[in-house]
Amino acid sequence: MMRNRGRPVAALVSSLALCWSFLAPPAAQAAPPPPPLAATPPMGFNNWNAFGCDVNETLIKETADAFVSTGLKDAGYRYVNIDDCWSLRERGPDGRLVPDPAKFPNGIKGVANYVHGKGLKLGIYGDAGTKTCAGYPGSLGHEELDARTWADWGVDYLKYDNCNNQSDGSQEDYIRRYTAMRQALDRTGRSIVYSICEWGTSRPWTWAKGIGHLWRTTGDISDNWASLRSIIRQNAPLAPYAGPGHWNDPDMMEIGNGGMTATEYRTHMSMWAMMAAPLIIGTDLRTASAETLAILGNRELIAIDQDRLGVQGAVVSDENGLMVLDKPLANGDRAIALYNSTDTLATVSVTTGETGLRDAGAYRLTDVWTGATTQVKSTISAAVPAHGTVVYRVRPLRDPTAVAPAVALGANLATLVPGPAGGDSTPTTAVPQPTDGGAPVAAVPDPTGGGTPTTTGPDPTAGGTLTTAVTNRGVGTLRDVAVTADVPEGWTATPVTPARRSRLATDATLETRWRIDVPASTPAGRYPIDLTASYRWGPRHRPATTSSQVIATVVTAPEDGRRHLSTISPVTSVNATGPLEPDQSNGGALENDGNLITIGGQVHTRGLGTTTGSELLYYLGGRCSRLVTDVGIDDEAPGGPATFTVYADDAVAAASGPVTSGEAPKPLTADLTGTAWLRLVAESETTGTHADWASPVLTCGDVPDDSPVLPESRTLFSFESGTEDFTIANPGDGGTVAQSPLFHTEGTNGLKVSTPVAGNWFGRPLATPLDLTGATMLKFDLKAGDAGTVGEIAVQVGEAFSWCQGGLWTWTNAHSSRTITERFDQISCPTGITLDRSDIRAVWVFLNTGGEVFIDNIRAE
Ligand code: GLA
Questions:
Q1: Judgement on whether residues 375 and 234 belong to the same structural domain of the protein
Q2: Which among 89, 272, 424, 650 would be 20 to 30 A from 252, CA to CA?
Q3: Is the minimum distance from the CB of 84 to ligand 1 under 6 angstroms?
Q4: Residue with CA at minimum distance from ligand 1 atom 6
Q5: In the chain, what percentage of residues exceed pLDDT 70?
Q6: Taking the complete model, does pTM exceed 0.85, yes or no?
């Protein structure tokens, strides 16, 4: 999405805002009090996720029409909300905000009338700072007038953002700025839902009840799985803070925008409903598919979200990426969600005693996605696909005999290596086979061994092992139980232990081990295996089946060449704190929350950030010869001492010995000739020390020692000879640049930039066009000063110096550092212009903060 942050100011169009006052008819009797606002989580639409700044009257009106025609209005969706970029860049002569007449020819009032005419409500966007995030006028210091203006226009909902906030960062300041608008809204006398959007920065759940009706709890969502998973992680534990009129807001939905699978979008809807989250649609409803509309319009989930008790589902358990939520409902039922955030099929279970369900001999489960009804005795359990969520509406059941029993069909599957099982007919290493959820089990060294080398080596030519588990959770014994595995063509699945059982009692499991063989020519990738359990149930021996799909991961060795190890995905990774972080330090519990890897003051832009207690496993298939790396404890969090060990299969190929904090990076070289599996292990007495593998390079195949390290990168500006003519795009907005040795990731110097609060572009037009043919992305390294900053890259192309800019910007916290990346395919140019990579005329980076920021090594990769 295009953000015009800091672009040259548009011509000022003055317009006289119409004054409109609401004259209430004299009341004969006291009117009944209006229903409380946001008594259940608000439901509606906002244009930002799908359209960014590209908002206008037609879109809003057509969306209102779509609410009606798609049935979403009937399903409960009410608010049609306008996000950033609706106004002119300057206030009017009377100080009021002015709707951009090109986007809203009938003003906001015109569009409000239209939306109201459909029985719907209208929302607007403002900012508790000097400018909005996209650089339009903010409301800080203008609260009274702006609230009055919006009320005059007939606005029913305000999303109030936090950019350019002039804040000292204290919670008091957040409370002050957001309360100022609360009071201004109150004084208008109009009922306006107040949505606080400060990204969870000041922990609004601790103070915003009674001020806002909802508050964002996280940074911006984006349309990908990592973002969704991370937001659920952050929002779920905040359940105690939500209730009628005061909701946690994990951000607007991405359902339908194309970046996730249907399974992931169903998880999105399921978890938003379980978390009593506002349901604000973020996709183009005029073109939404039937599948998207069915997800957004799921009545069962909407009923769970909108339940009048208004309780956010509590986290009952959260282990190994499997989470169970329990939400009480007004009619006495409970909604139970089984959420699997792992990358593999997993069985997620909870006993009824762990939930708020009252004691009963049996329970009835209604699956909100399939509508299927089953019964359980005392454990609610399902095999949930990777990234999937099963939601049941549950209530006690008196007579279970007429209801089908719930049967879970779980599976664990080894990582598979293509090749004949020939020469070795023994099954692969026997590994413990949990029947319930848990981490993927691979027929490779056990990655959960906490760094202890395993004694049985993997067999790279032996396919892998599948374990299936059929569990009867219902009241009553199952008969004639049989399980089958349907593998891709050319593969074979052979049961090694029995795949049938004549009787299966309540809570008993039929566990079967299978040997899977994969043809040698099979490319690396993910392949579905369909599992089916058939059985008979009840006094009349009725036949039934349960099926699951498990995804097989086939691994192959890396391609020839010298390559940054951080660009190769490990087969498995175990890390003590949060995920393994490629090309940054470990940071903390969240994904992508580290800094540039820094050891003894030396910065590395490539590497793997882990914490001790970590083990990374790579499949090499005997095709690689060497790993060269530096290791050390990251300066961001002194700790240790730690040890780093490289295992080639089960043998130690390189070991650091104890490494202490502040020490210079230690070089290691490991000979990997003939190695099938490479394991990197970092350990310390107590886990959690920030341990870095800095600039690791893996050599595979027969390549010269001096061949370039892939992916190749080309430095455009490294500031070794000065500022390299860097200038400021909008001189009127301010900022300075100077060469500085204080931060550098290339050579010995970088650039110190002082930025205006609302930001500016820093860079330069080029005398000769740059040819970046073949490059796929632009990058630069950044270190933020006291206040943090936003980083983004734009280019100008062609003779007309057309401005092309990406939608992606990265917020960097105070005093942290990172590489800012912008892929060429995410950069968009003005209509009619193509981004010709061979004709780059200028390169600009965007920075803001009102303080010092350091950058270096602007490069193409
Ligand atoms: C911030 C908000 C987003 C969106 C944009 C608009 O990033 O968090 O939801 O409103 O600003 O510029």
A1: no
A2: 89
A3: yes
A4: 84
A5: 91
A6: no
